[in-house]
From TrEMBL:
GO terms for biological process: cytochrome complex assembly. This is Cytochrome c-type biogenesis protein. GO terms for cellular component: membrane. The chain crosses the membrane at residues 12-35, 56-80, 92-112, 133-154, 174-192, 212-237. InterPro entries: Cyt_c_assmbl_TM_dom (IPR003834), Cytochrome_c-biogenesis_DsbD (IPR051790). The lineage of its organism: Bacteria, Pseudomonadati, Pseudomonadota, Alphaproteobacteria, Rhodobacterales. It is found in: Membrane. Residues 16-225 form the Cytochrome C biogenesis protein transmembrane domain. Keywords: Cytochrome c-type biogenesis, Membrane, Transmembrane, Transmembrane helix. It comes from the Bacteria.
Length: 247
C-alpha cells in the first residue's frame, strides 16, 4: 500500500489512528453541525430543499472531499519531506511531536486551554455555491482554515508523517485521514434525510466525542514520546504475519 514498508515505517498502527481521527473529526462539535448547511450551500438550495430532493448533493460533496484531500495529501508529503531532512534527529523529532500532541489532547480534555485552538481561520471562498468547482474550492478552504476542530487532529497525523521520513508514508497517512473524514460526508450527502436524523441524535454527545478525541491525542502523544508505535507495529506483524504482505 502506497509503496510503504510496514516493518520500517510502522504504517499500520498510524493508519488506524488516522482513520479514527478522521471519523472523530467529522463528529467533532464544529464540523458535524455545519454539514447540512455546507451541503445546502454547495448544491445552491436551502436545507429544506436539500431534504426534499430538489437537487442531489452527492457530486458537490465528492468534489468537496477531493478539495480537502488535495490539501491533506500535500501537507502529508511536506511533513514527511521535513522529517526526512532531519532523519538523524528522528528520535528527538518524535519526542517533540509527542509533547505537542499531548498538549493539544489536554486542550480537548479541558485540562488546559490554548486560545489559538479556540479561534477560526476560515478562508473566504466568495459566492461559489451551486457548482462543482465551488465545492472543490470550498474543500480547499475547509482543509486550510477550519482550525478549532481539525487542526489538532491534523497536527497529530502530520506529526506521525514527519517521524516516518518517507514521502509516500505521509501521503498515505493523510489519505487515510481524508477517507475517515470524507466518507461520512459523502454518506450524509447520499442519505441526507437519514443522516440529519442521526446527526440530531448525536449532537447531545458532542462534548463526549470531543473528550474522546482529546484522549486519543494524549494516547498518541505518549506513543510518540515512548516509541510505542514501533513496538505496536512489531507486535501486530508477529501476531498477524499476513500483514507483512500489505507492505
Amino acid at each position: 500500500m502506497f509503496g510503504i514498508d510496514l516493518i520500517d515505517a510502522a504504517f499500520l498502527p498510524a493508519a488506524m489512528v488516522a482513520m479514527l481521527a478522521g471519523i472523530l473529526s467529522f463528529l467533532s462539535p464544529c464540523v458535524l453541525p455545519v454539514v447540512p448547511p455546507y451541503l445546502a450551500y454547495m448544491t445552491g438550495v436551502g436545507v429544506s430543499g436539500l431534504r426534499q430532493g430538489e437537487r442531489s448533493a452527492v457530486v458537490p460533496a465528492l468534489f468537496f472531499v477531493l478539495g480537502l484531500s488535495t490539501v491533506f495529501l500535500l501537507m502529508g508529503m511536506a511533513a514527511s519531506a521535513f522529517g526526512r531532512m532531519f532523519l538523524q534527529y528522528q528520535d528527538w523529532l518524535a519526542r517533540g511531536a509527542g509533547v505537542v500532541v499531548m498538549v493539544m489532547g489536554l486542550h480537548f480534555l479541558r485540562v488546559i486551554r490554548i486560545p489559538i485552538l479556540d479561534s477560526e481561520a476560515r478562508l473566504d471562498t466568495g459566492d461559489r455555491g451551486g457548482s462543482t468547482m465551488g465545492a472543490y474550492v470550498l474543500g480547499l478552504a475547509f482543509a486550510f482554515g477550519w482550525t478549532p476542530c481539525i487542526g489538532p487532529q491534523l497536527g497529530m497525523i502530520l506529526s506521525l508523517a514527519a517521524t516516518g521520513g518517507e514521502v509516500s508514508r505521509g501521503a498515505g497517512l493523510l489519505a487515510v485521514y481524508a477517507i475517515g473524514l470524507g466518507i461520512p460526508f459523502l454518506l450524509s450527502a447520499i442519505f441526507i434525510n437519514r443522516a440529519m436524523g442521526v446527526m440530531n441524535r448525536i449532537k447531545p454527545y458532542l462534548t463526549v466525542i470531543e473528550k474522546v478525541m482529546g484522549a486519543l491525542l494524549v494516547l498518541v502523544g505518549v506513543a510518540l514520546l515512548t516509541g510505542a508505535f514501533s513496538m505496536f507495529a512489531y507486535w501486530l506483524l508477529e501476531t498477524f504475519p499476513f500483514l507483512a504482505m500489505l507492505g
